[in-house]
Design brief:
Blueprint (H helix, E strand, L loop, with lengths): L1 E2 L8 E2 L2 H15 L13 E2 L81 E3 L5 E5 L16 E2 L94 H13 L89 E2 L5 E2 L53 E2 H4 L12 E2 L2
Parallel strand pairs: 2-3, 9-10
Antiparallel strand pairs: 1-5, 4-5, 5-6, 7-8
Length: 437
C-alpha cells in the first residue's frame, strides 16, 4: 500500500523462520502453555510465505502484505485482516469464520471451499500521519491491469475516520470462491467483478451495492440475500443467457452434427450452424468436434470441454470462454476479439494464421481479448493480432510469439520468456517482467 503524501508506511519483512516462531508462540497461548503470545503480523510483509494449516485464530494481520502466500486450510476464525493485501493468495479450505476482512484486497485469490461465514467484507480504510501531522489515506498499489478498484472520497483526513466518506471497498475481483461457505457474510459495496462463486453458499449474505460484472453465480445458494442497489444483469446465473437453445428449430446436437458434416464435406452436405449469443453450457463438452467456420459471436461456452476441437476460422468474437478447456484446439484464423478467456486452458493450442485456398493468410484476432490467468503454455500465436489484450498472470512459457502484434497489451504478472517476447511486435506493452530464456 502507499499513501498520497511523501511518507510511506514501513513494512517489516518476515522470513519463514520468523513467521514459524511467532505462529508457535500463538499456538502455545491458545493451548494455555507458558511463553505464549498472540500473533501480531500487522503491517508485516508475509508475501509468498507458507501459512498453510496453521492455527491462527484471532491473529492480527491488519495492513499486512500476503500476496501469493499459502494459507490453505489455515484456521483463521475471527482473525483481523483489516485492509490487508491478499492478492493471488491460496486460501483454499481456509477457516475464516467471523474474520474482519474490511477493505481487504483479494484480487485473484483462491478461496475454493473456504468458510467465510459471518465474515465482514465491508469497506474499510487505514491512514498514516504525514508532514505536519496530517493523516493520509493509504491505498493498494495497483498495476496497469488493475484499474483502481479501491475508491476514495477524499485523499486527506483531519481525523482517522473509517465511515463511508473515506472508504476502501473489499476487492474480490477475479477471486475463486467455488463452493465457499459465505453464510451471512457482509459483502456490502464489495467488488466481485469476475469472481467465481460457483456452488457457493451465500445464504443470508449482505450484497447491497456490490459490483457483479461478470461474476459467476451458477449453482450458488442465494436464499435470503440482501440485494439493495445490486445489478445482476452482467452476472452469470443458472438461467440461460443470450438466445435460449430451445429457440432453435432443431436441437443443438442436431445442428452441430449438420455443421460437422458441412465442414467435413467442404460445404457439399449438411448446413453451417449459427449460435450467435447462444448459451451452449448445457452441452458440457464438444471434444474433438469439427467446427471450422462456426458462427458463435457472443456465445456462452463457460467451463465447457472443447479440447482438440477444430475451430479454425470460427467467429467467437465477444464469446464467453472463461475456464474453457481449449487444449490442443485448432484456432487458426479465429475471430476472438473482445472474447473472455480468463483462466482458459489453451495448452498447445494453435492460433497461427489460416491459409485460404487463395493463399491469403487470415491471422487469429485476439484484439481486446481478456486472457487473465489463462494457460497458454506451448501455444502457438504466431502473427496473431492481440492489440489491447489483457494477458495478466497468464502462463506463456514455451509459447510461440513470432510476429504476434501486442501493441498496448497488458502482461502484469505474466510468465513470459525473453526469447519469446523479443520475437513479437510489442509496442507500448504494460507490466512486462521477462523470465530468462
Amino acid at each position: 500500500m502507499s499513501n498520497f503524501g511523501p511518507k510511506r508506511i514501513v513494512y517489516r519483512r518476515l522470513s519463514q523462520a520468523e513467521f514459524d516462531d511467532i505462529a508457535a508462540k500463538h499456538k502455545r497461548l491458545y493451548r494455555g502453555k507458558r511463553d505464549g503470545a498472540r500473533a501480531d503480523f500487522a503491517y508485516c510483509d508475509l508475501s509468498g510465505l507458507d501459512l498453510s494449516g496453521r492455527p491462527l485464530n484471532n491473529a492480527d494481520f491488519s495492513g499486512a502484505i500476503l500476496t501469493e502466500a499459502n494459507l490453505e486450510e489455515a484456521r483463521l476464525h475471527a482473525a483481523e485482516f483489516f485492509c490487508a493485501d491478499l492478492r493471488r493468495a491460496n486460501l483454499r479450505r481456509a477457516k475464516l469464520v467471523g474474520a474482519d476482512l474490511r477493505g481487504t484486497c483479494l484480487r485473484g485469490a483462491d478461496l475454493t471451499k473456504a468458510n467465510l461465514s459471518k465474515a465482514d467484507l465491508r469497506e474499510g480504510a487505514t491512514a498514516a500521519r504525514g508532514p505536519g501531522g496530517r493523516l493520509h489515506l493509504l491505498r493498494f498499489d495497483l498495476g496497469p491491469s488493475q484499474l483502481p478498484a479501491v475508491f476514495f472520497r477524499e485523499d486527506r483526513l483531519t481525523k482517522l475516520h473509517t465511515g463511508r466518506a473515506f472508504s476502501v471497498y473489499a476487492d474480490l475481483t477475479d477471486a475463486v470462491l467455488k463452493e465457499a461457505r459465505l453464510f451471512e457474510v457482509n459483502l456490502k459495496d464489495a467488488r466481485l467483478d469476475g469472481a467465481d462463486l460457483t456452488g457457493a453458499d451465500l445464504t443470508g449474505a449482505e450484497l447491497s451495492g456490490a459490483q457483479l460484472n461478470g461474476t459467476i453465480l451458477t449453482d450458488a445458494i442465494l436464499d435470503r440475500i440482501i440485494t439493495e442497489q445490486v445489478d445482476f444483469s452482467e452476472a452469470m446465473r443458472d438461467i440461460l443467457v443470450g438466445q435460449s437453445l430451445k429457440a432453435f428449430r432443431k436441437t443443438a446436437t442436431e445442428r452441430l452434427q449438420q455443421h460437422q458434416l458441412w465442414a467435413e464435406s467442404q460445404g457439399r452436405q449438411g448446413a453451417p450452424a449459427d449460435f450467435t449469443k447462444a448459451d451452449l453450457r448445457p452441452l458440457r463438452q464438444l471434444t474433438d468436434a469439427k467446427l471450422s467456420a462456426l458462427v458463435a459471436p457472443g456465445a456462452n461456452f463457460f467451463g465447457m470441454d472443447l479440447s482438440g476441437a477444430e475451430l479454425q476460422g470460427a467467429n467467437l468474437a465477444g464469446a464467453d470462454l472463461r475456464r474453457t478447456n481449449l487444449r490442443g484446439c485448432d484456432l487458426r484464423g479465429a475471430q476472438l476479439s473482445d472474447a473472455r478467456l480468463d483462466r482458459a486452458d489453451l495448452n498447445n493450442a494453435t492460433l497461427d494464421p489460416l491459409q485460404l485456398e487463395s493463399k491469403q493468410l487470415v491471422p487469429t484476432n485476439l484484439m481486446g481479448a481478456r486472457l487473465r490467468y489463462a494457460d497458454l503454455q506451448g501455444a502457438s500465436l504466431a502473427r496473431a493480432k492481440a492489440e489491447d489484450a489483457d494477458l495478466s498472470y497468464a502462463n506463456l512459457i514455451d509459447s510461440d510469439l513470432t510476429g504476434t502484434v501486442l501493441h498496448q497489451s497488458i502482461f502484469t504478472g505474466a510468465q513470459i520468456c525473453h526469447s519469446a517476447y523479443r520475437k513479437a511486435d510489442a509496442v507500448d506493452t504494460k507490466g512486462v517482467m521477462l523470465l530468462a530464456s
